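Hi Y.,

Following your request, here is the sequence exactly as I used it, all 190 residues.
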Amino acid sequence: MSRIIPLFSSPIYMNQFALDEQELKSIEQEECLVNVHSQSPNNGLMSVDMFILNKYPKLKDVCINHTESFIFDELKYKRDINYRISLSWLNIHPPNHSSHKHCHSNSKFSGVLYLNFPKDSGDIMFEIPSAYRTIEPEVSEWNVYNSTSWKIQPHKGLCILFPSHLEHYTGVNTTEQNRYSLAFDVVVSI
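Below is the corresponding structure, written out as tokens. Let me know if you'd prefer a different format.
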């Protein structure tokens, strides 16, 4: 009898929470500048404040609830570990903007909470690093065992958490509206 063991997987957590509309209106007014982490001119805007959750306690609670559900309930980490959200920032992707492929080397987990996501404003894509790729034969049907990339279509209120080393990017915002998301990094200590 055969079986597959998803050894050393890269789990991606997704869950939905209600968002406070008052905080959403306020956070969309935050000062943002062109994303300095990219050479691309259409790579969106980032908030000047890199600890933005400190100003928005209800959004911070949503991110903490997602983080705790992921690391304690799903990954089964012992509850005596310490974790904290180290950085948090607002991303704005105007029409025709996207984000480049990147990972976060300064944390254990990273998350994104979609605050305002117009339909067709750019899916989030995950890829295995090219260093881990070998010869890739043609596949008859893609699944989680043979894929080198995975696409998720976000929506307002969706939170996604994933290992920070996992490469990710977003597609082009093809709408006439801005896409707003809140990104955060989580560090863990024993």
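The radius of gyration is 17 Å.

Thanks again,
Q.
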